[in-house]
Amino acid sequence: MTSQGTMNGKVALVTGGSRGIGAATALRLAREGADVAVTYVSGKEAAEDVVRGIEALGRRGLALRADSSDAAEAGAVADRVVAEFGRLDVLVNNAGVGVLGPLESLSPADVDHVLDVNVRGVFLVSRSAVPHLGDGGRIVTIGSCMTQRVPGPGGTLYAMSKSALIGLTRALARELGDRGITANIVHPGPVDTDMNPADGPYAPPQSAMTAVGRFGAADEVASMVAYLAGSEAGYVTGAEFAVDGGHAA
């Protein structure tokens, strides 16, 4: 089946694209017509399942093992995509980790790991992608509702790491705007994934924190990413978009 979407001929890279929001985003971009590469660390089979889904939509898919906490791997991933597909038009910085707990329980190793993946990795992947992006290029980064509202204790490290991406996004927008490249950030609220299921033990209080009283679906976040990655969002850059069910309202 050939897509009739708005991204025909484009190539996208979705980091952490083997599951959850990343997988939903990869498939949505493929439905819009893009060829899509996804990265994974340990979920090879899941990433290959996503690739099969992309190919079933008539697009090319690629699964790459690339650890965002490894500076060399993060810094080379865009080159690997271009070597396979010949170009790169869209980067979705989705890979991330969360370590929650009381401040005094967070070790230096925890701090290093979270910042390596959530901040340094995003910076390095973005840096690797920028030389390949041309006019109409798009960078969309997945942030967190906890950058807008931290509803309780235990989120210091995670909220700090995701908040850094707001500054990165705004700076990228300024640095790349004259090249016709946009940079935006999407802040999901509680979303039903295998890491944070809507029927899990911590779900009821999270649902209660939203205005709509429920978890979001990964596809609902992916739809915002697809808009920002598409041609209609060319005048949207340096902006934050909450897809959080009113978590920050």
Task: Give an account of the 3D structure.
With 249 residues, the protein is of the alpha/beta class. The protein has a single domain, classed as 3-Layer(aba) Sandwich (Rossmann fold). The protein has helices at 20-31, 44-56, 71-85, 108-129, 156-176, 203-208, 218-229, and strands at 11-14, 35-40, 61-65, 90-93, 138-142, 182-188, 240-243. It has a seven-stranded parallel β-sheet with strand order 3-2-1-4-5-6-7, with helices on both faces. The radius of gyration is 17 Å and the shape is globular. This is Oxidoreductase.
Strand order of the largest sheet: 3-2-1-4-5-6-7
Percent of residues in beta strands?
A: 5-15%
- Specify the structural class: alpha/beta
Give me the Rg, rounded: 17 Å
Average pLDDT metric: 94
CATH superfamily: NAD(P)-binding Rossmann-like Domain
CATH class call: Alpha Beta
The third-level CATH topology is: Rossmann fold
- How many strands appear in the DSSP assignment? 7
Helix content: 40-55%
The profile of the biggest β sheet is: 7 strands, parallel
Low-confidence stretches: none
Please indicate the count of domains.
Answer: 1
One letter per element, helices H and strands E, the order comes to EHEHEHEHEHEHHE
CATH architecture designation: 3-Layer(aba) Sandwich
Ends: how far apart?
41 Å
Shape: globular
Total of helices: 7
Protein name: Oxidoreductase
Organism: Streptomyces populi
GO molecular function: oxidoreductase activity, acting on the CH-OH group of donors, NAD or NADP as acceptor
Keywords: Oxidoreductase
